[in-house]
């Protein structure tokens, strides 16, 4: 028993003496086991689990900065540790929410079935997921309104409360864009600026815009040839291309809305597709004629037309990115003459037009053979209607032959074509702008007023906003009221708005990503179209359902109806304000755009996971219910590398569509795989789930190969095979995970493959010394200020401890050598109470001890003060107490201590007001470890892992107490 035990109580009656200073420090560290988060005390173990769970959620949203912060922070919550108190606001909010909901509790059914792309925005800075918006029942006014829009009864009708809408707007400010490498864009930027000016006219440009336009002219083949792919990844060009594509969509639809008079959204969609293709061809020709694309040597020998088209879209993307949207519009108008007018090349699709003309009869197309040689075939197609009309079409492809047949059918029966749309306005005729309804529903009127204020539209767009809040069912039942004010349903606006929202989302995504780095991967630049569920969620915040006019059979609460209304509202705002929405917009819209999750759904995550372990899968679908209300359940059939088959079926509650059923099944499989990381979740698994988990774990063991760095990052982010537990230094949790997995696999379970040990070693190396590691980031800090210099020196010291420590020496040799070197410069006191306790130092321990003594000695030397050192071993842990006098210990040692604790295994360095306490823990007893646990601990400890023989510290060779 240590002779300091029990003497700690003297602290109340006498100041610390050299005999028990280390005892006080040890006891204080032993008592630090919980963290004060606001008014609650959270055990360190719980904090580690919650931080790992949050890190996985951030990784799913590809918020890698937040993921890395949580991984680093989880490593600071070791027992006795001193994690930082001033946590970021975004993390505090998420921690509280996770603790309230139970971050490691089993997911409820509705959480498992939720869409993975849920936007986590709110009206405040709190990042917590908002509650689903509540909707009041449809106002009685709507039921009392006649088909002409007038109240059919004079009886008073009680109005529902007016919903609260946040009307505030804000300017959008982004950090500066990262500058592309000068050697990559040196001359091309000036050339592109000159080409755009010559075509579209003058505009104010900046050096930033010039450099980025130079990057826009680059093709990925040029990146590889110039060896610049490490500095600018091809994914950057891909995101620029997609941003330019959305800008082109909006430019085309803006122009189309000024002159076109389509009757249905399908007609508008077909016209837009044809016009976009014609515009892309014209833009590609402009880029080629100007010699703008910068390609690799091989690509330039015979460039495909798609290369120039991609470069042109990238240029449009940069113009949008740098605030020159109007210049982009002028460029398109100058290059493609049909932007503001209809043309024969982009007229209505014959097939779509024939379907509209003969819709009541029905049109079918049948093959009538083919003729000509194999290299020049002609296809024959016959178009037939339900009443017996027919016509033949011939073309060089089946698609062309079908279009020719449709065209021939309309030419053969012109009287039917004329009768199909006797009142249709001609294209190019000036449209009468829609007006607000004369006697609107009060909820509708309030919504129009609030949305106009929210988007800062004044009364300019009241008619368009009224149209945006008009459902097709209402116009069908109220044709007279709609016609009187030149109104129609919101379908055309919604189609236009879907492209506007995609452009706003792409612009936000690109500005955010390109301000951070140009070495982006696929996940950093992924841009997914906004889903119907995402947009409907925004509709809940905007409360558009309370103002949506619907027919008697449609309540206006469906996801599709709300989503269409939101898209139409955004289109109305864009048609009124244009690209100003890129610079200033409503707060709720900006928060929604910022919080969109451009991540894979559970099905895609499952696909990546199975691919990493040599597995394949497929879905089997089962349906139930009547034809008009079918519900789906889906079974996932997984085959591992040995041909074993594993099946799982999720059975969500209520009516479920096919995509939702697939996501639910995939999400349940992912949840089951994550269960061993949590004792609470693991204990609740049913026998059926345990069987699936056992089979999948065996499949992971058997199919694990040599993952790439990116795959290792995904494995760590998902928490596969306990890798995240080792990476955060939570060895207790890893050993518990290994024990749970061992109970599943049994004593004769699957042998631990060498590939698993190699994976653990590579993941830990990535975490400790890789590009994302704290050590690498601290070593790369620039600046000449004191804090930057200290952090770089700390990184150098820790790197020496890892690589070149005094591994052939004993603990006492290291202390004695340091005392001999330090004593001539400062006063040094060394007290050795290690006695004859067993201690098992790692190589890293010896390096940590050497560098810690050296670091503290230099701090004392700089202040001209003495150093006190005390050593003892308790419960297999070597404690080294280093007292510093007249030194700001926290300022001098915090960064070094944090980095040492994060990088070296079984090493804690704790800093207090007047001392540093270094704790070097013994490795676990190998006889108590299962093969799986031993594989992980071998990787965690490095060197010889858990199999290194024990070194016994001999009291006979102890250092005498020395003073200089």
What does this structure look like?
The protein contains 41 helices and 18 strands. The chain is 50% helix and 10% strand. The two termini are 31 Å apart. It is of the alpha+beta class and 964 residues long. The chain has a 6-stranded mixed sheet, with helices on both faces. A 3-stranded antiparallel sheet has the order 4-5-6. The N terminus and C terminus are likely disordered.
Question: Which secondary structure elements does this structure contain, and how are they paired or packed?
Answer:
Elements: H1 21-31, E1 34-37, E2 40-43, H2 44-60, H3 64-74, H4 89-101, H5 109-112, H6 140-143, E3 169-171, H7 182-185, H8 188-200, H9 207-216, H10 220-225, H11 234-259, H12 265-289, H13 297-301, H14 305-321, H15 325-335, H16 350-357, E4 363-371, E5 378-385, E6 390-395, H17 398-412, H18 414-420, H19 442-454, H20 462-468, H21 472-477, H22 479-484, H23 491-514, H24 522-525, H25 532-542, H26 559-577, E7 584-586, H27 587-595, H28 602-612, E8 616-624, E9 631-639, E10 645-650, H29 658-674, H30 679-683, H31 687-703, H32 709-718, H33 723-727, H34 731-745, H35 754-769, H36 774-779, H37 786-803, H38 811-822, E11 828-833, E12 838-839, H39 843-863, E13 867-874, E14 877-884, H40 889-903, E15 907-911, E16 915-921, H41 931-941, E17 951-952, E18 962-963
Parallel strand pairs: 11-13
Antiparallel strand pairs: 1-2, 3-7, 4-5, 5-6, 8-9, 9-10, 11-18, 12-17, 13-14, 14-16, 15-16
């Amino acid at each position: 028993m240590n002779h300091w035990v029990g003497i700690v109580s003297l602290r109340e009656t006498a100041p610390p003496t050299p005999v028990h200073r280390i005892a006080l420090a040890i006891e204080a560290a032993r008592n630090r086991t919980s963290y004060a988060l606001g008014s609650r005390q959270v055990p360190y173990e719980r904090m580690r689990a919650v931080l790992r769970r949050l890190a996985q959620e951030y990784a799913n949203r590809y918020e890698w900065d937040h993921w890395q912060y949580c991984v680093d922070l989880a490593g600071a919550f070791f027992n006795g540790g001193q994690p930082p108190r001033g946590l970021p606001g975004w993390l505090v909010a998420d921690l509280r929410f996770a603790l309230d909901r139970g971050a490691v509790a089993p997911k409820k059914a509705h959480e498992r079935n939720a869409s993975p792309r849920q936007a986590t925005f709110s009206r405040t800075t709190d990042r917590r997921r908002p509650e689903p918006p509540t909707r009041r029942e449809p106002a009685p006014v709507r039921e009392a309104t006649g088909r002409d829009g007038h109240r059919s009864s004079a009886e008073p009708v009680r109005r529902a409360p007016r919903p609260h809408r946040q009307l505030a707007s804000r300017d959008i400010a982004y950090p500066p864009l990262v500058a592309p490498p000068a050697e990559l864009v040196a001359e091309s930027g000036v050339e592109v600026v000159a080409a755009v000016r010559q075509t579209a006219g003058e505009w104010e440009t900046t050096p930033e815009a010039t450099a980025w336009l130079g990057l826009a002219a680059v093709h990925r083949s040029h990146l590889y040839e110039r060896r610049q792919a490490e500095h600018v990844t091809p994914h950057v060009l891909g995101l620029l291309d997609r941003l330019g594509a959305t800008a082109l969509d909006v430019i085309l639809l803006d122009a189309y809305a000024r002159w076109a008079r389509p009757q249905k959204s399908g007609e508008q969609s077909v016209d837009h597709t044809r016009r976009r293709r014609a515009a892309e061809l014209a833009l590609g020709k402009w880029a080629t004629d100007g010699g703008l694309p910068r390609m690799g040597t091989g690509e330039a020998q015979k460039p495909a037309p798609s290369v120039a088209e991609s470069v042109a879209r990238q240029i449009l993307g940069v113009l949008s990115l740098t605030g020159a949207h109007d210049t982009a519009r002028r460029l398109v108008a100058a290059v493609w003459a049909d932007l503001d007018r209809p043309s024969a090349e982009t007229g209505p699709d014959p097939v779509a037009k024939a379907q509209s003309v003969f819709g009541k009869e029905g049109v079918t197309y049948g093959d009538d053979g083919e003729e000509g040689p194999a290299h020049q075939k002609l296809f024959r197609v016959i178009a037939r209607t339900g009443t017996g009309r027919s016509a033949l079409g011939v073309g060089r492809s089946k698609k062309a032959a079908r279009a020719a047949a449709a065209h021939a059918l309309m030419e053969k029966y012109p009287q039917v074509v004329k009768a199909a749309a006797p009142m249709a306005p001609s294209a190019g005729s000036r449209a009468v702008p829609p007006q607000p309804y004369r006697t609107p529903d009060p909820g509708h009127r309030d919504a129009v007023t609030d949305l106009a204020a929210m988007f800062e539209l004044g009364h300019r767009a009241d008619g368009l906003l009224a149209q945006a809040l008009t459902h097709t069912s209402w116009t069908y039942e109220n044709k007279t009221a709609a016609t009187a004010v030149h109104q129609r349903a919101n379908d055309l606006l919604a189609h236009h708005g879907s492209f506007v929202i995609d452009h706003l989302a792409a612009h936000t995504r690109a500005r955010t990503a390109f301000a951070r780095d140009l070495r982006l991967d696929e996940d950093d630049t992924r841009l997914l179209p906004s889903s119907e569920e995402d947009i409907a969620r925004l509709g809940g915040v905007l409360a558009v359902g309370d103002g949506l006019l619907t027919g008697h059979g449609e309540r206006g609460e469906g996801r599709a109806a709300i989503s269409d209304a939101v898209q139409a509202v955004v289109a109305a705002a864009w048609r009124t304000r244009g690209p100003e929405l890129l610079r200033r917009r409503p707060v709720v819209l900006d928060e929604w755009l910022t919080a969109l999750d451009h991540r894979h759904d559970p099905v895609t995550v499952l696909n990546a996971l199975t691919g990493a372990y040599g597995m394949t899968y497929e879905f089997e679908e089962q349906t139930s219910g009547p034809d008009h209300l079918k519900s789906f359940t889906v079974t996932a059939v997984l085959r591992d590398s040995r041909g074993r088959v594993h099946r799982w079926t999720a059975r969500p509650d209520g009516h479920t569509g096919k995509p939702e059923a697939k996501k639910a099944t995939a999400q349940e499989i992912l949840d089951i795989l994550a269960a061993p990381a949590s004792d609470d979740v693991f204990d609740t698994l049913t026998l059926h789930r345990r069987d699936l988990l056992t089979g999948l774990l065996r499949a992971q063991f058997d199919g694990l190969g040599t993952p790439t760095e990116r795959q290792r990052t995904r494995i760590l982010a998902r928490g596969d095979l306990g890798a995240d537990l080792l990476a955060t230094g939570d060895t207790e949790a890893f050993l518990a995970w290994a024990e749970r997995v061992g109970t599943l696999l049994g004593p004769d379970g699957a042998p631990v493959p060498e590939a698993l040990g190699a994976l653990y070693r590579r993941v830990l190396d990535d975490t400790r010394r890789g590009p994302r590691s704290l050590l690498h980031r601290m070593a790369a800090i620039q600046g000449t200020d004191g804090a930057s210099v200290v952090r770089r020196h700390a990184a150098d010291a820790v790197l020496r401890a890892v690589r070149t420590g005094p591994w052939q020496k004993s603990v006492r040799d290291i202390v004695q050598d340091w005392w001999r070197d330090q004593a001539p410069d400062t006063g040094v006191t060394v007290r050795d109470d290690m006695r004859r306790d067993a201690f098992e130092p790692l190589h890293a321990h010896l390096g940590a001890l050497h560098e810690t003594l050296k670091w503290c000695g230099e701090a004392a030397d700089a202040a001209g003060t003495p150093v006190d050192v005390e050593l003892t071993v308790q419960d297999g842990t070597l404690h080294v107490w280093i007292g510093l006098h007249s030194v700001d210990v926290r300022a001098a040692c915090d960064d070094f201590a944090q980095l040492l604790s994060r990088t070296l295994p079984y090493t804690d360095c704790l800093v207090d007001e007047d001392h540093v306490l270094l704790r070097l823990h013994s490795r676990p007893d190998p006889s108590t470890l299962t093969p799986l646990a031993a594989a992980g601990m071998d990787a965690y400890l490095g060197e010889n892992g858990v199999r290194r023989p024990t070194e016994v510290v001999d009291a006979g060779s102890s250092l005498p107490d020395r003073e200089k």
